[in-house]
């Protein structure tokens, strides 16, 4: 069996201008980044504004397990399948972060015969967007610490600096640090910490900005500290929003690539859905919708995280209305939710599967609560038995849940035809009553309670004393009307990663709130979730190499 | 008077394929990075190995002052002038670092009518090389700290980790930090620090590597720590040289751009010459020499730093033999060396000029000591008076020093014709007896003494007790045959930045030695020189912005 990178390296990849031509884009409409990657120009994006909008199909999933779900794989395969059905389709994915790539997860460009290409470029530095974000984030930190050092005219309380530094790596030793040591010429000593770049507010700002001017306004609003009077200090107060915008001016332009079946794909923006809002950029999604009749896009992790944030935050910010949702599930992951260990997944186990169905049921209810048509997509793995698949299909039929088996990993777009047809059918036949789950006018705690009750299926919310104080403070500062971006483990509907399946009666523990005024939301940190991952004992990096022809080895 | 960025933005820039065509490069030989930047392919570089080598002209300078010398400007203008004289010429420059760009220095692509284009891209993220270097550097740090956290099989002494993290920014608050705080799940607490990326060993490795396999070997040799038995631990011991090579596989490919007069330029590698070896990459210099008959390249700061390292380190490592050297001087800077303050530079002051000539005299003697033909290039500024220029020219003639006035800032290549002719003349007429100033077999302290005496004109070297111990240790470890990379202030021939002109009888204080086995040299830190700069009270970033068309504002 070939590995993903072998399939990718042996694939026929065509010059990006040929992919662009499928969407009537000429060489004047983009800049090359190598032969197979391009960035669209602002002029072209602006010129598309009068075009009608294509239909947006959002791909989400059940709660992920160590068994893998293949959401990106299904997203790519569904796009390829829609094109096979003669529908003019584009894909809109997120950019991978080097942290997980070098850590444990591997790449994020799909798998098998449903991949985005050039796989190794996208999984490494790509067009440099994440590096530009890291740089803007850290330039701001350096400028802030320099302000402290050079007289501190803004009277920033050095104990109340909230802006953190960032690296696009899994580096747990940087979670909590002390900087500015060494005496009066080496800065002002203070506690600091690093987040992974994809969790940074600059990443969220880039993903939610609608153009360069909006980007600048959002950057200007970012809260970086509080002054000695406990008033917020913003980037605008520091006067460096222009420099940060300059650093991000190319990163904001969506990146065009292709799938193995030469479906055009915009891969742009890459926040994690557990600790950030988890969706690709509004610029990319909207541009894809202008260029194509159908856009297949994904939101990270399960529907409790990425999809909730897509629908409550990104859709609100970008005025987007999805046409349908695909909920990806695998037999293997459902069996894990049903209590089977990772080592026993290759054995048929109908009982475990049926026990695990509660997890998918919750996500179906969530999408129904948003008023959206949906299809459950079963992402077939080789070890799945006919009896298991039949049991899942039967359960879906019993509950009147539209379902399709996909074999895109093995067969590419051909393996996604059934899913594509079902998706087109629900778009056609089912009523779309899309609405947000909470109103802007709800208080921050009301919004959190709504998400916990309607999306997670939890019983209650407990705020730490710090979070209680912050609720009061944030409302007093007039930030109460912002949506909430929940930071929660992806493994469970609850905030305890060990509670698989469909836990009930649980409490969500909000330990801290963070104002992200540039992104336009309030982050609520729950449970023990961390904004900087660590590396495993044997990182994926240990297997990576370059062969004598300069090709990547050990990326997967 | 137009600013540099106005001149750059109003210039006629041609598609990079037309520039490539001048060197007989086709679209198969490079990858586009936008319309005006390209990276050469490894295949093409390899195919050039049988071609004869062009002549290398090294541009250096007197000790820089706040008044500016314009070494990059002269490098670009000289290349343009040689092309005007019908000589097939390429330029090989270093990539700018964002630290100084956002701090005080501004861009590093020349000035006036002698600039490399696209100026704003090169000065911002360019093709991402520096970001790849930062990422490789910090991925290694994360992998090392993860090794400590996950059982420390290599028995690394956490107090003796020598690998530092890096950012490509001026961020003094990161010079001395403590990481790994927060308890047993957040890493192993230890002292750490950040260098600016351009001072990192990864940057040096990239600039000295001759191909991808050599890069990997060098990365593997880098010393990252000592174990509990005080034995060195390398990247190879950690087993991650493959992953680092993968992260750098595109960064090692030279970048092709153009000057305002459409001279092809390879801009690649960007170490600082005060705290690193300060030359562009061997890959770029050698490739340019294969493609062109003349290559004009620069080494950073004064001849005591960049040129010394070009000639003792880079030339040795890459087996290069320069044909001639240009020593750039300005009337203004010589007056500063002669005792005039920055505010009085616009007034004619022959006496101060004559006092300052001692500085240029020392650098002339240095280049003579290396056995190389040279020309002094006077980089004319508008406030220079005829009497001042005549005095400088007369002094050169009296001392039999070849000299040429250049007006490339104002007139482009046309303003460099006299210098170009003089350079061609010394190549033709003068004897080239190029030799290194010390032998591999000399001890580390002998090498340092040689540099101090023959290049700086100092009287003695004082080693701190730490440096004394390190000398013994490094010789015992068999590292004594490596060349030495001096880290010293650029402002003075001594290690005291306030001693301008030509100080004599001074002692150089070596406070610490650092093994850089991947780069293949030993760094000697002298005086108070720091490997992470700070930002000024009002950073250049405060003036930067993007206009409504997405163009850079405030880059200079």
TrEMBL record, chains A, B:
<dbReference type="InterPro" id="IPR020628">
    <property type="entry name" value="Formate_THF_ligase_CS"/>
</dbReference>
<protein>
    <recommendedName>
        <fullName>Formate--tetrahydrofolate ligase</fullName>
        <ecNumber>6.3.4.3</ecNumber>
    </recommendedName>
</protein>
<keyword id="KW-0547">Nucleotide-binding</keyword>
<dbReference type="InterPro" id="IPR027417">
    <property type="entry name" value="P-loop_NTPase"/>
</dbReference>
<comment type="pathway">
    <text>One-carbon metabolism; tetrahydrofolate interconversion.</text>
</comment>
<dbReference type="Pfam" id="PF01268">
    <property type="entry name" value="FTHFS"/>
</dbReference>
<keyword id="KW-0554">One-carbon metabolism</keyword>
<feature type="binding site">
    <location>
        <begin position="65"/>
        <end position="72"/>
    </location>
    <ligand>
        <name>ATP</name>
    </ligand>
</feature>
<keyword id="KW-0067">ATP-binding</keyword>
<comment type="similarity">
    <text>Belongs to the formate--tetrahydrofolate ligase family.</text>
</comment>
<keyword id="KW-0436">Ligase</keyword>
<dbReference type="InterPro" id="IPR000559">
    <property type="entry name" value="Formate_THF_ligase"/>
</dbReference>
<dbReference type="GO" id="GO:0004329">
    <property type="term" value="F:formate-tetrahydrofolate ligase activity"/>
</dbReference>
